[in-house]
Each structure stands twice: as structure tokens, then as C-alpha cells.
């Protein structure tokens, strides 16, 4: 999977989860500060990322931005 | 529809009642855990930020009082978590419950040691993630609870978690009598966890001031601290709790809220409530069900009274598991 494909899929999850417009999500989007995700929202996102990419993430992962999410997915897909 | 109370998990533990003691830092001592397990529930030692040797001391205390299985509740954020798990494995504890955090890094070794693992979950997605990691059950805890809490109520959280996972769900938060336990089963739970109700058990070693405060409490006598700065905790109202909430608002109005300073204000206050009964300065963690609790009685009576009432209401035999 290319970075762009991963990003597109992650974006799709974020758009759906937080009712955003596509153009509101970029790689630098800060999940906590830009889209007001609280810790329970983040679990929801991680849960869906796990299912959609068929990977496992640690719950405690330090994820701040869309880029962080994409990186985690990339690392897990490569593992 | 038949109500199923003999799930394999509780059967394996030889429990007589599908009722679990919620792990309680400082308050959940070996003596209380032993009394609950001995009577046929599942007792838990609360460990908070203890060192391994403190945990071992309480485990040994339980073992000196009962041969029945019991559990240890661990705080995954503790700096001593590694040594705590070492002690738990060495001592052959039956069950581990985890509060805030992700137990999955420790799951393989706990399972290899034959230990049942059940995390507390505040939401459906966390319950699903935990199921995927392979935990044995989840404790769905509503915000009626005493101690650190999430956002959902027990009434709303439990059935949604039950629908989302295929492992046993234990309902926690706001359960204090047989009606509450029966309600938990109606919501699809396999068992009920209680914290506050057991605080006034005869064997509970909390300060008499703390017990008196629970028995005197009315429905509206708890307050949630940490709403603004995070780490929400439900406590009985007193000077410390009200000041905390007030300071929290002031802190937030500052340009740079000092969460660390607020945390410092909070740390140690639960111990002061439990061990010293410090009426003004202690954090008397207790749930909204405090208003229903009017007496101190042996853990065995609490369990049998509650189960008699619950089975009566559910129209099932008062048989044991
Ligand atoms: C004094 C006190 C301390 C607690 N400490 C912990 C803890 O260390 N870890 C944890 O997972 N839950 C803790 N809890 C939550 C309980 O395990 C339990 O889930 C809760 O009390 C259930 O709600 P109830 O109080 O309405 O029965 C604590 C609760 C109380 C009242």
C-alpha cells in the first residue's frame, strides 16, 4: 500500500468519525486540537483503523496528527 | 428468555455469586478481598501506585484468610508496574483487572501463567479493541461509579458493550442492591461489580469517618473533580472536593493552566480519606449509589442478601453457580 492510499483510507475514517469535509483533513491535522478528538474518540479511530487495515495497534500509541496515524499503519503493515 | 448466570469464567473460579469487588486503591485491602472471596464473590486487592512488595504483603494476607481465588487490580500507569506483575505471577493470583491503560503488552505472559485478565472499559470501541487483543472479559464501568470515571452511564454503556463483544461483560457503576444486580443481567451482563457497597462491609478497613460519610450520604452528595483538567473522579462532597472544582475553574482561566499543580493537590488525598478519615482534606471516593447504602454488615451478608433479592426479581432459583 502506498502512503497516499494509507492516507486516503485514514482520512475516510476521520471524515466519517468526526463529520468533517474531506478538505478539513490533512497530514498535519492535529486530532486533539484541530478536530477536538477526546481520548474516547481516539480509541474509536484506532479501533476502526485496526479493522480497516487488519492490523494491531497498541492502545497507548502516542498519536497526535494524521501523519502519526499513517506512520503507525505503515509500520504495522511492514511488520 | 432464560437468564444465564453460570458462565464458564465464574464457574472456573468456583464463585457462588456472579458478583465482583471492584479494585479500590487504598480501600481494597487483603482483609476485605478475602472476606468477599471466602463468601463466594470475587475479591480484589487494589494496588494503585504500590511497590511489588506492598502487593505481595496483601496477597499473603488474603491467602492467610481464604483458599478461594481472588484478583488483583493494577494501575498500568504505575512506575512499579513491572515488579507488580512479577509478584502477581510469582504468587499465582487467579485474576488481574486493569484500570486506565492498555494491558495487552502483558497479556501473553499473564495468560501463560494461567491468569484471567479483565480490563475496565469506558466505551464500546475500547471494549472491542480489548477483545481483539484476547482479554477474557471486560468490565463496563459507568460514570455513576466512585473513583476515576468515564463519560457514559452504566445503563447506556453495558448493553452497547454487550452487543459489541463476544466475551463476558461485567457491569459496574451504581450497583448497590439486588435490583441493581438484576438490572445488570437484564442489560446483558454476565456479572456485576460493586465498589462503594463493599466499602461499608464490616471487613472493610477504611477509616470509620469514611464509612459514616457513605452511610449518611444522600443521592446528590457526590461531585466529579477533574472535569476540566481531565482525570475525572467521583468523590463525596467535602471541602477538598469543592475547593478542587473551584480551583480547577480558576486554573483554566489562567493563560497556562497548571495541570501538574492540580494533580499534586489530588495525590495522596485518597489515602488521607481511607487511612486518616481526614474530613476536610481527604478524597472520599464513592459512587452515586452511596445514598442507598444505610448499613455496615459482613461481606457475606451483603452478597447473600443481594443475590436473594436479585434472583427473586429475575424469577430464577436461588441456586449457586
Ligand atoms: C475508593 C475507590 C477507589 C477505587 N480505585 C480503583 C482503582 O484503583 N482501580 C480501578 O480500576 N477502579 C477503582 N475504583 C472503581 C471500582 O473498582 C468500581 O468499578 C466502582 O466503585 C464501581 O462503582 P460503584 O462505586 O458505584 O459500585 C475505585 C472506587 C472507589 C470507590
TrEMBL record, chain A:
Could you say which residues form the signal peptide? none
Location of O-(pantetheine 4'-phosphoryl)serine modifications: 39
Question: Where in this chain does the record put each Carrier domain?
Answer: 4-79
Q: Where in the cell is it found?
A: Cytoplasm
Q: Which pathway is this protein engaged in? A: Lipid metabolism; fatty acid biosynthesis
GO CC terms in record:
cytoplasm
Q: Which UniProt keywords apply?
A: Cytoplasm, Fatty acid biosynthesis, Fatty acid metabolism, Lipid biosynthesis, Lipid metabolism, Phosphopantetheine, Phosphoprotein
Keyword Cytoplasm belongs to the record: yes
Gene3D superfamilies named among the record's database cross-references? ACP-like (1.10.1200.10)
- PTM: 4'-phosphopantetheine is transferred from CoA to a specific serine of apo-ACP by AcpS. This modification is essential for activity because fatty acids are bound in thioester linkage to the sulfhydryl of the prosthetic group.
Q: Which is an annotated GO molecular function term of this record?
A: acyl carrier activity
Predominant subcellular localization, coarse grouping = cytoplasm
Q: Which InterPro entries has this protein been placed in?
A: ACP, ACP-like_sf, PP-bd_ACP
- Role summary: Carrier of the growing fatty acid chain in fatty acid biosynthesis.
Family the UniProt entry places it in = Belongs to the acyl carrier protein (ACP) family.
This protein's name: Acyl carrier protein
UniProt source species = Leuconostoc inhae
UniProtKB/TrEMBL annotation, chain B:
Instruction: Tell me which CDD domains the record gives.
Output: NPD_like
Which keywords does the record carry? Flavoprotein, FMN, Monooxygenase, Oxidoreductase
Source superkingdom: Bacteria
The GO terms this record gives for MF are: nitronate monooxygenase activity
Matching PANTHER family, A to Z?
2-NITROPROPANE DIOXYGENASE, 2-NITROPROPANE DIOXYGENASE-LIKE PROTEIN
Briefly, what is this protein's role? Nitronate monooxygenase that uses molecular oxygen to catalyze the oxidative denitrification of alkyl nitronates. Acts on propionate 3-nitronate (P3N), the presumed physiological substrate. Probably functions in the detoxification of P3N, a metabolic poison produced by plants and fungi as a defense mechanism.
Name of this chain's protein: Probable nitronate monooxygenase
Amino acid at each position: 500500500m502506498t502512503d497516499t492510499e494509507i492516507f486516503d483510507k485514514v482520512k475516510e475514517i476521520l471524515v466519517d468519525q468526526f463529520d468533517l469535509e474531506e478538505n478539513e483533513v490533512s497530514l498535519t491535522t492535529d486530532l486533539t486540537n484541530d478536530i477536538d478528538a477526546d481520548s474516547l474518540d481516539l480509541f474509536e479511530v484506532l479501533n476502526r483503523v485496526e479493522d480497516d487495515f487488519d492490523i494491531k495497534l497498541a492502545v497507548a500509541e502516542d498519536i497526535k496528527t494524521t501523519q502519526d496515524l499513517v506512520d503507525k499503519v505503515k509500520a504495522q503493515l511492514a511488520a | 428468555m432464560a437468564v444465564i448466570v453460570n458462565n464458564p469464567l465464574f464457574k472456573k473460579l468456583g464463585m457462588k455469586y456472579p458478583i465482583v469487588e471492584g479494585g479500590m486503591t487504598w480501600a481494597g485491602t487483603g482483609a476485605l478481598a478475602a472476606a468477599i472471596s471466602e463468601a463466594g464473590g470475587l475479591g480484589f486487592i487494589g494496588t494503585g501506585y504500590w511497590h511489588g512488595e506492598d502487593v505481595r504483603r496483601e496477597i499473603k494476607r488474603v491467602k492467610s484468610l481464604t483458599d478461594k481465588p481472588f484478583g488483583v487490580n493494577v494501575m498500568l500507569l504505575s512506575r512499579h508496574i513491572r515488579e507488580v506483575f512479577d509478584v502477581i505471577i510469582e504468587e499465582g493470583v487467579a485474576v488481574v483487572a486493569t484500570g486506565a491503560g492498555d494491558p495487552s503488552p502483558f497479556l501473553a505472559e499473564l495468560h501463560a501463567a494461567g491468569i484471567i485478565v479483565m480490563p475496565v472499559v469506558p466505551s464500546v470501541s475500547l471494549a472491542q479493541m480489548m477483545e481483539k487483543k484476547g482479554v477474557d472479559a471486560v468490565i463496563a464501568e459507568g460514570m455513576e461509579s466512585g473513583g476515576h470515571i468515564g463519560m457514559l452511564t452504566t445503563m447506556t454503556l453495558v448493553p452497547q458493550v454487550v452487543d459489541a463483544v463476544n466475551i463476558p461483560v461485567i457491569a459496574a457503576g451504581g450497583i448497590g442492591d439486588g435490583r441493581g444486580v438484576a438490572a445488570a443481567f437484564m442489560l446483558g451482563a454476565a456479572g456485576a461489580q460493586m465498589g462503594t457497597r463493599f466499602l461499608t462491609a464490616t471487613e472493610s478497613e477504611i477509616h470509620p469517618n469514611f464509612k459514616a460519610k457513605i452511610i449518611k450520604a444522600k443521592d446528590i452528595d457526590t461531585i466529579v473533580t477533574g472535569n476540566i483538567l481531565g482525570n475525572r473522579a467521583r468523590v463525596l462532597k467535602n471541602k477538598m472536593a469543592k475547593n478542587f472544582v473551584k480551583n480547577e475553574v480558576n486554573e483554566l482561566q489562567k493563560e497556562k493552566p497548571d495541570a501538574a499543580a492540580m494533580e499534586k493537590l489530588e495525590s495522596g488525598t485518597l489515602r488521607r480519606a481511607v487511612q486518616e478519615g481526614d474530613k476536610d482534606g481527604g478524597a472520599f471516593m464513592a459512587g452515586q449509589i452511596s445514598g442507598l447504602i444505610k448499613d455496615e454488615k459482613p461481606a457475606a451478608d451483603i452478597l447473600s442478601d443481594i443475590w436473594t433479592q436479585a434472583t427473586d426479581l429475575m424469577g430464577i432459583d436461588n441456586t449457586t453457580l
